[in-house]
Amino acid sequence: MRRGTITDLLQRDLAVLVLADVGSLSVPEAERLAEWVQGGGMLVRFAGPRLAQNADTLVPVRLRAGDRALGGALSWSVPARLAPFAADGPFGGLPVPADVTVARQVLAEPSVDLGERTWARLEDGTPLVTAERRGSGHVVLVHTTASPEWSNLSLSGLFVQMLQRLVALSAGVAGEAEAGGALPPLELLDGLGRLVPPPATAFPLASERLAETPPGDLIGPRHPPGFYGTSEARRALNLSAAVAELRPLEGLPPNVARGLYGSRGELDLKPALLTAALALAVLDLFIGLALRGLLPLPRLRFRRGGMAAGLVLLLAAGLAAGLRADGARAQPVTGGPDARAVQASTQNWLAYVETGDRSVDATSRAGLQGLAEQLNRRTAVEAAGAMAVDLETDELAFFPLIYWPVTETQPAISDAARQRLNEYLRHGGLILIDTRDRGFSMGGGSRLEELLRGLDIPPLAPVPPDHVLTKAFYLLQDFPGRYVGGAVWVEAEEGRANDGVSGVVVGGNDWAGAWAVDAQGRALNAVVPGAERQREMAYRFGVNLVMYALTGNYKADQVHVPAILERLGQ
User: Among 143, 311, 543, 552, which is least packed by CB within 10 angstroms?
Assistant: First the structure.
């Protein structure tokens, strides 16, 4: 650790530079700092009275003038505590002490990407730590002081852990003591792409080789990809830096089989076996009655060979009937507008938006068909199946739920379609928008923003732990689809209409891909990372979603609290 002026410190090899309440930088200092950050430096700034009044451009977000209050309209009667850190953020997993409080802070101007740049928050939702990537480096701002003047955070062990996480995020520097030194393997990737402890066959890596040699020449059995160094200063060895473009293999021999990833599933034999058991039970009953002479069948005789053949035929018929019953699928609605309206209004259909992509539309149809079968088996909902809708021409009011997969090739909707969608949302409809990219976050999808432009959608927020979606039928804490880990967004509390029911649910976990089944009821796609338990939880989310669309905020009523608490305690 070094201490000095900005000019003196930047003459050294630095990984992290900390500025404590520096509010006014000279032009040469700002330019030199910006150049250093672009080259991979980690600039960590702390707020204070100076920065609150003289904020410059070398901060990750725009700041309001002053501190503690938003233009004087907000004042705190008691210090605020820290909210739990996001699991996928840089501080994920760090415990938040209950006695750490913040009495004053500088406040960020609201913006579309403020959520993406926020690494830590207070309980009231205001950012405490924000960050922005610039070039190869980062600019991080802690919105309170590095001293106990505004907060006791600096006196806690959490403060040290947060700084250690920030140092670990930096690019690191190879100083004179490390020049020519060896970096021991820390965490390495196995064949499934998981970080695991290094095996005995992995060897240390010379720091100068890591800096000068292309990754493709380094990676091998002695130096697998992963992290090398120490937990405080680690270096990444990753082959992706040498891969300019990802494309499928070409020039394979003609006898090499090719196929799409993830086409596997399970065959549910329960209906077939139950049908066969019932058929055998009925046959046994008739045989018993016949042998006792209680059936009015003249000259009824049984031969050993004929009876065996009959049993085989009955068993085969039962299996076929069971598979046909399990694979029965609702067919797409045909006919003119009047016939379509009659069918759509006399049964419960789950609708999906036609995108023009045949593969995506087929997955949406198979996914909603699979969800409809689960609803019929598990709940009192009688779902007829899946029905495609064209936003430009079809009436949407018949459907309690519309699944909308987002594709890059999907054409923009017209003004008439936007008006139809707005009417549908205002009158209690629910739309599940699925970007199918697993990494969805608000403000990050330009294609989604283009499709939703002009729709009357209130502000969205991640699903809170007590939302009705978490308890509409099953008790859930996350909402996986074919993928896991993506955030799910609903209308914010202050923006809800329709008696507190969100009309829009947005995520990227590819739920239809997890629900999709073929005519025999077999899953069409693998779930990632792969456990069938994940598919079960995806079905449970789908059931909760449909029950939420049909019953609204019914489960938010306090009358259900004792039953829910009892269930949670089991």
Answer: 311
